[in-house]
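So, read this over?
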Amino acid sequence: MIYFLLAISLVLVLLLSFAISGLWAKYANTKMIAVFLFPGIVVHELSHALLCLATGTTIKELNLFSSNGGGIKYDKPKISGVFDFIITSAPVFGCAFFIFFIPKILSHPIHFSTTFPSESPATLSGFFALIQHLYDAVLANLNTFRNQFQIKNIHHSIFLFAIIIFAVSIAPQKQDIKYLITGFGILSGIFFCLEKFGIHLAQNAWWNFCLKELWVITALTISVLIPLLLITLIVMGFGKGYALTFGRKGSGKGAGKGTNKNTRSAGKHDTR
């Protein structure tokens, strides 16, 4: 059942980052957001490009330096569905790699729990136990941030901004969500069946390491994205209230424009 927990966690990361990216696209200055997210944009687009090359999919255009964010155009993959999932999921793991790597560069400025949840039985109660594991991990990370984060500590600030940049940059395109949710669901089902048939991949040290690190990364990312979404909604609410109070229409220079994610979406799928 641990694979289902990871799939749920990854889908939650996708939805949270998508929601934040969409709100920023509508209510924030597009160019400022593109500058802030630039490292994540580069990783996002290059991840797409790398998996396009790996699957033999023709890249027609790759732009990393647009004022509205990067963009990539590619032909329809040779094996529709499977390669669509592989290409669209690439930024998830590309950005996750940097979320994994940055704390090591900064000598782990904040020490989060790395406790890996124990396996749960394949029952309804087991499923809710997995959800409880995720909730407890997110809550523990939030408490860790509250107790250890020091805004005057440069390593802490760099760490937080880096996590935000790469976490938000995971955001998929709206039309890609169906491939990602379906793909992660199918993968979790395949790994679950392998376990039931006696093929225990977790017995391999490298596989177990990857599972544990992916769990830590997804729990940390969710812990950052949830407060960020709440802050975004609060700021958006104040902006709306200000506009209504003083009779102004619109909510900012970026209203009606697309961020780097929306720009990539249009460019990518126009080629198919």
User: Anything to note?
Assistant: Residues 250-272 have pLDDT under 50 and may be disordered. The chain has one domain: 2-269. Strands lie at 59-63, 71-74. The first helix runs from residue 2 to 27.
